[in-house]
Amino acid sequence: MPFQTLDANNSGDIYEIFNYANNVSDGIFMPLMLLVIWVVAFTGSISEDRPAFRSWIFAFFIVSILSVILSLMSFINPMYMYFSILMLALGLFWAKLATSQVV
Could you tell me how far CA 22 lies from the centroid of its own chain? Predict the structure, then answer.
């Protein structure tokens, strides 16, 4: 079966273009976009001399918000949304351990 073609009739807005890209790539386009956004946010935060746990939390917070939106729009499998929220919770736990003081 040949790939669908993107023409003027089915590329009216950004939703249809992203939907086309996601369908042609068998649903891996949006998770890869989330990965790229995470890498940019994480490295950008690290380059500002922030601790690694704060950069982790910042990057996964951005990705978690985007993954909830993309999951509601049926661009990604909810598994990716749950994974990003779980990694955000792991980062919060890491921050708690990193800032705790031994008495």
Answer: 15
> Is residue 76 situated within a structural domain?
yes
Q: Is the dihedral of CA 60, 66, 70, 75 positive or negative?
A: negative
Question: Above 70 in pLDDT, residue 8?
Answer: no
What is the per-residue pLDDT across 28-59, written as a single tens digit (0 to 9) for each?
999 999 999 999 999 999 999 999 999 999 99
Give the max Cα distance, the chain. Answer: 67
Burial of 97 per CB tally in 10 Å (0-12, 13-18, 19+): exposed
- Say if 7 falls within a structural domain: no
Name the pTM for this structure.
0.84
